[in-house]
Design goal:
5-stranded antiparallel beta sheet; 6-stranded mixed beta sheet; 16% strand
Amino acid sequence: MDAHCIIFSKSYTGKRNPRTCHLPFHEIYCNFGDVIETKVRKYIESHDLLRKEDNVIVGLSGGADSVSLLSILRNLGIRCIAAHCNFHLRGAESDRDETFCRELCEKSGVKLIVQHFDVGTRMKSTGESIEMACRTLRYDWWNSMIEKGIGDYIAVGHHREDNIETFFINLLRGCGLRGLKGMQPCNGRIIRPLLDITRQEIESYLLDKGIGYVTDSTNLEDEFRRNKLRLNILPLIEKEFPGGMDAISRTIDNLTGNHTLYRHLTEEMRKRFTDDCGRIDVRTLSQSMPCPDTALFELISPWGLNISHAKNILASLDDDTRGGKWYGGCLLDRGLLYPPVTCESETCDCIKINHISPEEFRSILSEKSINPDAIYLDSNAVDTTRLRLRRWRHGDRIAPFGMKGTRLVSDILSDAKLSMIEKRDVRILEYDGMVLWVVGMRPSRHFPITKKTRKVAVITCPR
């Protein structure tokens, strides 16, 4: 590894002078590495992040944060596997980082898994920014390793300053308690054991242990919003308001506690205003709760609706007497807000297929015992593995049996004088993108039974 690739803290001289290492006096003569490892161990225990029998996948970039995280966890006796992402965004520097991680893990006896990504292709297909594309690819890969049983948790090296930067980014975007509480020690299978450690402590720890690391040159550029905070704004705040970072960190801790209480009260409110079918009694909520728009937003945000939806729903209550209105896939009808349909398509298990002979079909016709919940098709003409059941959508068209041309499914539903709630539950049986059947209402003229039919497929679907 070239010497210029390994960067050590400039704020710690190695002489343990109080003016340079910025430690409390009683810690100056201690082994600094042991002090930090003890601090992290207590943090892990206080938040119940890990047990010693857990296998942890450490997201290893080669930077100071992830290198120190790997070292600390291993020294605490936790079994670790390292995972490195090479996004190939910085040319030779990206390959340098991978080489460093390989050498570090080989020297430490840690298993390393490396994954290469094509970020450009991801961005073209999704329209995501570079940052978001990298984040999605990284977390999807990590989660896939958890699903495969490679590890129990993903450990990432976010530290105190990262959390403060997240606080400010969310604050400047405009957010509530959820955003202001910053990062959490544990989010599902993602854990952050270093959230109580400062960047300076991380660099001093590595110097004390004699461990090198690499630096991402883009972290020194203030092109990105987070870098502007890190390089320009937060140092200025600390300069003008000494101890400001400590105060902000305490504020984040306070807001985390506030949010925990807030979530508890929100769940109590959800039980009060939501029935067994998941419908929210918006009218009662609006008459019972202070700040009803905020209260409603908390109940509908898991459905993907925002505060503007909440305000619009409440504003339309006075007009909610005839029919209903749709808000982001949710139906408001007579003061009740119905949840959105959670799945667009349903499994083939919902579709029941039987086969009968043409003679049996003719007998059914003569006896006028056609099942209205079934569609009868030429079994040899249709590949039943290509059927798909889904909810109807505006713009769907069907070529009705016995008619020429096509009709909008919405017109068929209106002709049937279905209510908004009944329309909401109508399903479509689709065949390669073609509407084959408005379930229980109108079949298409595709794959009809003819004189040449040798076997009849009887397909039933739930309404």
